[in-house]
Amino acid sequence: MNVFIGIDRAGLVGADGETHQGVFDIAFLRHLPNMVLMMPKDENEGQHMVYTAIKYDEGPIAMRYPRGNGLGVPMDEELKEIPIGTWEVLREGEDAAILTFGTTIPMAMEAAEILAKQGVSVKVVNTRFIKPLDEEMLAGIMKDNMPILTIEEAVLQGGFGSFVLETSHDLGYQHVEIDRMGIPDQFIEHGSVDKLLEEIGMTTEDVVLRMQKLARQKQKRA
Fold first, then answer.
1. How far apart are CA 177 and CA 142, in angstroms?
2. Which domain holds residue 165?
3. Rounded CA gap, 9 and 39, in Å?
4. Would you say residue 28 lies in a domain?
5. Considering Cα of 168, then 169, then 170, then 171, what sign does the dihedral take?
6. This prediction's pTM
7. Looking only at Cα atoms, what is the longest distance across the chain?
8. Domains contained in the chain, number
9. pLDDT tens digit string along 43-59?
10. pLDDT, tens digit, for every residue of 16-36?
């Protein structure tokens, strides 16, 4: 069936309360055959994803989008289709890679900037398609033996990071170090998004610490 599903309040929702935390959808959607699942990095990419979904006629497609306002980025006047299952490199790097999407991209970019000043070169990838994965880009990263940190504002069990781990095994890259950052196996209580992220260890500082550890492990193996 060709259907477009809009998933409102994807991720942590803050003031809406603990019953509205949008953190389970990836885990219960990605196992469905032929499902396409995506999330934009900003409102401009979002309009292109809506256009892509409307034009898509090969099965169900879903777009996650967060509660709140857009980032205020310039909007393209002409809509375009985004090739299904393609990712986007936002920052080049050689020592390690961060794979993330949606609302956690600014956190990843800020962490990469901090790490660059410490001499750690980090690639940041907008993994806008959660399913299907961009296996070609993922294989290229793993072929370069770059340790990977996945970040998702969603539950870890059955989520995007789990999908990356499964795919790395299927592609024969079991040796690549992969760390996952996301919502732990617990219900998230009411609170501001920033406060909740701090409580579960998902801040820019936490990303920097995780990446420093991955970079050190790579140096030891070299």
1. 9
2. 88-221
3. 12
4. yes
5. positive
6. 0.93
7. 50
8. 2
9. 999 999 999 999 999 99
10. 656 667 688 999 899 999 999
What is the number of alpha carbons within 13 Å of residue 119 lying toward its C-beta? 2
First to last CA, the chain: 49
Contact assessment for residue 60 and residue 31, using Cβ atoms and an 8 Å cutoff: no
Say which residue the tokens 């610490």 belong to: 209
Dig out the tokens for 201 from the structure.
Answer: 């260890």
Task: Name residue 123's beta-bridge partners.
Answer: 97
Q: For residues 36 and 137, state if they share a domain.
A: no
Of 157, 67, 76, which is closest to residue 103 (Cα–Cα)? 67
**111: CATH:** 3.40.50.920
Cβ atoms of 204 and 104 closer than 8 Å: no
Looking at the structure, do residues 12 and 117 belong to the same domain, yes or no?
no
107 close to 182: Cβ distance less than 8 angstroms: no
Q: Which of 5-9, 47-51, 97-101 is the least confident region?
A: 5-9
